[in-house]
TrEMBL record:
Name of the protein in its database record: glutaryl-CoA dehydrogenase (ETF)
Cofactor(s) required, per the database record: FAD
Pathway in which this enzyme or protein is active: Amino-acid metabolism; lysine degradation; Amino-acid metabolism; tryptophan metabolism
Reaction catalysis annotation: glutaryl-CoA + oxidized [electron-transfer flavoprotein] + 2 H(+) = (2E)-butenoyl-CoA + reduced [electron-transfer flavoprotein] + CO2
Uppermost EC category: oxidoreductase
Organism listed in the record: Microbacterium insulae
Keyword check for Chloroplast: no
InterPro entries: Acyl-CoA_DH_CS (IPR006089), Acyl-CoA_Oxase/DH_mid-dom (IPR006091), Acyl-CoA_Oxase/DH_mid-dom_sf (IPR046373), AcylCo_DH-like_C (IPR036250), AcylCo_DH/oxidase_C (IPR009075), AcylCoA_DH/ox_N (IPR013786), AcylCoA_DH/ox_N_sf (IPR037069), AcylCoA_DH/oxidase_NM_dom_sf (IPR009100)
Lineage, top ranks: Bacteria, Bacillati, Actinomycetota, Actinomycetes, Micrococcales
Domain Acyl-CoA dehydrogenase/oxidase C-terminal: 244-390
Keywords annotated in UniProt: FAD, Flavoprotein, Oxidoreductase, Transit peptide
Coiled-coil stretches noted in the UniProt entry, renumbered to this chain: none
Amino acid sequence: MEPRNPDDLAALREASDVLALDALLTPQERATRDRVRAFVDAEIRPHIADWFDRGHFPAELAPAFGELGVLGMTLEGYGCPGRSAVEYGLAALELEAGDSGLRTFVSVQGSLAMGSIHRWGSEEQKREWLPRMAAGEVIGAFGLTEPTAGSDPSSMKTFARRDGSDWVLSGAKRWIGLASIAQLVVVWAQTDDGVRGFLVPTGAQGFGIRVLEPKGSMRASVQTELTFDDVRLPADAVLEGVRGLRGPFSALNEARYGIVWGALGAGRDSYEAALRHALRREQFGRPIAGFQLTQQKLVDMVVELQKGALLALHIGRAKDAGTLRPEQVSLGKLNNVREAIAIAREARTILGGDGVLLEHSPIRHAANLESVRTYEGTDEVHTLVLGQHLTGIGAFR
């Protein structure tokens, strides 16, 4: 048997799909995947090492994401694409094969900000914001995490009090993606009537934004800290459709679903970089892909990628059928991110010393996945979600 050609990526991908999982997708799903993959290859892959190195998020691509149809991808009406959960998952996978930061933009915009407005907003709020956000003309953010309230959002201190017909917002949020380039932030705050959501323009008086940097992860993305110094909001700024933490939790579960797929993209891209390098790199008179230890590493990566893809597809089909449960999403996020990090790290070892250069993707993916592992629920939180499901005993406190 002849060694595989490292330049024939299509053949390498066909060989790596050992279980023929591609055949489980519909023609429409494959077409969506291929369209997003082509966008990533043309618009992200040639520039991502430079963006990561400079700590630059390409906000100018927002309208292109809108034209691609990945902003609010599963939402219906109001100019939103209205595609299936599996199609969105495949898009998330391809976007994160480019970079976690770019997939995160799509998640924050579509699942968190737009999803909250679509599910809990008034008809007027939906008509005002969703069409422009779906087109990438308006960028939104989602403010839940606080300096002292990460895994325990019930302890949030940000508070909105009534003052006549207005609301007055005070407090702080931290690790809020996109806020410095956004026009609107969905902010969750305590009130005398429980947790409520508010639509807060970033230009409101008393609203402060500080970019969190320098970072060693998610460098082609933007994370911020927000402060609210008696920010006055009109009565129609509140999301009237929900009270309590089920509002932000419903949005977080949507974002977690995207991560189940997205992490596979980072893992797959790391594996492919390692495989192609191993086929090209010669030591001791032969390609290192011909050595047993290298083959074991590559096989272990593919086994986990194939298992993770089956898991993601099963979860996606359940979501499209309306039967998906939160603990299933927790299992998918916990497993696929954990395995993707392991794949990225192992891929870096195959690249040897060259693996620390940003022209090779695994070290960038490994760094990014440390953030993905933390946000939308840490490993520990998802472990306890599953533990409570198994035992019926909550171990959070």
